[in-house]
Amino acid sequence: MKNLFDLKDRKITFSPQALMIPELKTIWDSDKTEDKSEALKKLSYIYFLCDYKSPYVLSIIPELLEKTVAKDFMKNEGYEPCSDVKAGVLRYKELQKTPSMGLLEAATITIHKLSEYLSHVDLNERDKSGKPVYKPSDVTNSLKSMGGIVESVAKVQEQIEKETVQKGILRGQRKKGNREDPK
Questions:
Q1: Which pLDDT score is estimated for 88?
Q2: In 98-115, which positions are buried (b, 16+ CB within 10 angstroms) versus exposed (e)?
Q3: pLDDT tens, 49-75?
Q4: Which of 59, 63, 79, 96 is such that its CA lies 20 to 30 A from the CA of 70?
Q5: Is residue 5 packed enough to be buried (19+ CB in 10 Å), middle (13-18) or exposed (0-12)?
Q6: What is the residue extent of each domain of the chain?
């Protein structure tokens, strides 16, 4: 699923194909306001909560993601999505899934956990016998491996980008030719 949603001039826009997806069309059609502001809020919520390229998905720990997106787009941290939005979330996640996506999700969760762990390391903390709980060498070895982890995640993201381009449709509704670069 490529480019159903996009950001232009600080506003979410979406392709006409987005409204061909029944769950998203239901959200659009149920908004009777002239400017479709409710539908746009709900579609924005879905995009920023689900899209693997969303800055929220990329930077916020999974436990806080839904509350943060709800606060920013629905203006309510305790927002409880209606059944139409829940269906849209499920379908959007399902349609963008590629073979590498699960690997990226697991890697992102691991990176957040590692970051959380390292932020709580206290090199001055001692056990009952007075020995350091955390050895400086263990911490520095963890930090050294971080570059490799970040590089690996970047490679997975690149692979996902290639997979989504290969699954997608190019401009003008034409399919990608066998000699076209996936980027």
A1: 95
A2: bebbeebeebbeebbeee
A3: 998 888 898 888 888 999 999 999 999
A4: 96
A5: buried
A6: 1-97, 99-183
pTM confidence score: 0.61
27, 39 Cβ separation under 8 angstroms? yes
Position of tokens 């809020």? 41
The Cα 156–Cα 1 span in angstroms is 17
- Report the SS3 class of residue 4: coil
Q: Is the separation of the CB atoms in 163 and 99 below 8 Å?
A: yes
Going through the chain in order, the beta strands assigned E by DSSP cover 5-8, 11-14
The tokens describing 38, both together, are 């409710």
Please enumerate in sequence order all residues whose Cβ is within 8 A of that of 168, keeping only pairs 6 or more positions apart, or say none. 1, 2, 3, 176
Lowest pLDDT segment from 40-44, 84-88, 172-176 = 172-176
